[in-house]
């Protein structure tokens, strides 16, 4: 898609947006819709590079929780700062924005909303079209090197293509997750240099690495189960939901949303994850269920029955962890003690957590500018009067499930509206 290009770095704009991710595109499109002359600078050669791979390429565009009070409960300590921006642009507005531009959405488990097309690039296409319609000028391959301050204002931004000037500036450079998409965290450095307090980012929603290498045999397998995390053998907390086995350890929504707590435990000692594949059954009921299944198929090989009993290929677990158990054994020959071992195993598969995976695998990296230094009614900096900060640059903890992108849509829209009200040609 071709965009109008800046004629020269000496051109003056009403609004200059740094970063062509979800928050930056939303901010630029909103300001342009209000009739402002907008320039968007993007360091990559295309827009939405990270957005295009979000949600496994499907893009979990928001969480369909229409009760704003309930929604904000998922943002932890940041919630008290978010009532004003969400009163201006909430989940219903997100649905209206995209569906009104012929991108229908549908809602899956845990209120996660995706495009019906299941294609993240369609989300980028909608935003790109909105930019084009608003005649936003876009300069690609244009990494910003500095924000140039004059008094309490930004006077210009420096790039390898020269300096650009505007009345208002929106910083939307994103955090540190998925650095291969260009998310280097440069915006945090610029904000610090301007006097802002920035909490050091860390991988927040991220998979867990395990000591046990046998999990690689289950790579790509997903189960619904309960995970209990232990510190030095003592239970700390438990969570339940979808668990994904990977070649390096554990992932999936349940694991990702536990990562921050697990990270804190890792600083205190040895952390173990205990996975229960049958959380709806106690050990006795689980044993009775297996016994009934074995009785029904007593002339079949144990391996065959386990493939039927255990979810989604996880029969490899007893095959690996109970090496003395003959998987070709006819079920009628299975000893009671071995059956009990099987039940105990699937009710508590133990894995040693060695570390959180790094920024390269993080869905979201937490940290960012202190919200006390941002007027969240407008997303304007309290220190720099013509600078607005949006998206992943803000210190807002959130789980996976569409909550992160909703922050981008909301803060981008609010900043775009605010600069439209203050910038003049």
Question: Can you walk through the features of this model?
Answer:
This protein has 425 residues and is α+β, with helices and mostly antiparallel strands. It is built from 13 helices and 20 strands. It has helices spanning 22-33, 68-72, 79-88, 91-99, 120-133, 186-193, 253-256, 259-266, 283-296, 302-309, 316-321, 336-346, 403-422, and strands at residues 12-18, 38-41, 62-63, 105-107, 112-115, 137-139, 144-150, 153-159, 162-171, 198-205, 208-210, 222-231, 234-245, 249-251, 271-276, 349-356, 364-369, 374-375, 380-381, 387-389. The strands form 5 sheets. Strands 1, 2, 6, 7, 8, 9 and 20 form a 7-stranded mixed beta sheet that branches. A 6-stranded antiparallel β-barrel has the order 11-14-13-12-15-16. Helix 1 packs parallel to helix 5 (120-133), helix 1 runs parallel beside helix 13 (403-422) and helix 9 crosses helix 12. The longest helix has 20 residues, at 403-422. 46% of the residues are buried. Residues 176-183 have low confidence and may be disordered.
């Amino acid at each position: 898609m071709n965009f109008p290009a800046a004629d020269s770095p000496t051109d003056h704009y009403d609004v200059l947006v740094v970063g062509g991710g979800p928050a930056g595109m939303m901010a630029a499109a909103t300001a342009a819709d209000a009739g402002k002359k907008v320039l968007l600078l993007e360091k990559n050669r295309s827009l939405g590079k990270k957005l295009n791979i979000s949600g496994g390429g499907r893009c979990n565009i928001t969480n369909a929780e229409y009760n704003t009070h309930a929604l904000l409960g998922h943002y932890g300590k940041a919630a008290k700062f978010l009532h004003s921006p969400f009163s201006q642009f909430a989940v219903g507005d997100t649905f209206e924005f995209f569906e009104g531009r012929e991108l229908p959405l549908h809602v899956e488990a845990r209120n996660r909303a995706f495009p019906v097309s299941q294609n993240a690039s369609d989300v980028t296409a909608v935003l790109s079209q909105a930019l084009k319609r608003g005649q936003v000028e876009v300069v690609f391959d244009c990494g910003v090197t500095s924000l140039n301050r004059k008094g309490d204002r930004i006077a210009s931004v420096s790039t390898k293509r020269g300096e650009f000037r505007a009345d208002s500036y929106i910083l939307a450079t994103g955090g540190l997750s998925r650095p291969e998409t260009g998310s280097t965290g440069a915006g945090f450095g610029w904000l610090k240099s301007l006097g802002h307090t920035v909490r050091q980012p860390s991988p927040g929603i991220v998979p867990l690495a395990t000591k046990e290498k046998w999990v690689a045999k289950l790579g790509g397998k997903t189960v619904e189960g309960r995970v209990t995390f232990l510190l030095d053998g003592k239970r700390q907390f438990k969570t339940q939901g979808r668990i994904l086995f990977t070649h390096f350890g554990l992932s999936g929504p349940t694991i990702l949303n536990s990562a921050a707590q697990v990270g804190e435990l890792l600083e205190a000692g040895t952390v173990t994850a205990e996975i229960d594949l049958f959380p709806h059954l106690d050990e006795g009921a689980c044993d009775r269920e297996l016994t009934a299944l074995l009785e029904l198929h007593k002339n079949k090989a144990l391996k065959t029955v386990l493939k039927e009993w255990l979810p989604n290929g996880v029969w490899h677990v007893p095959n690996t962890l109970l090496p003395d158990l003959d998987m070709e054994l006819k079920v009628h020959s299975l000893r009671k003690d071995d059956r009990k071992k099987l039940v105990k195993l699937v009710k508590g598969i133990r894995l040693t957590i060695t570390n959180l995976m790094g920024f390269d695998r993080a869905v979201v990296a937490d940290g960012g500018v202190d919200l006390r230094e941002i007027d969240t009614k407008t997303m304007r900096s309290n220190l720099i009067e013509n600078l607005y900060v949006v998206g992943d640059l803000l210190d807002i903890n959130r789980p996976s499930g569409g909550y992160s992108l909703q922050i981008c849509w909301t803060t981008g829209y609010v900043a775009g509206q605010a600069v439209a009200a203050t910038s003049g040609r």
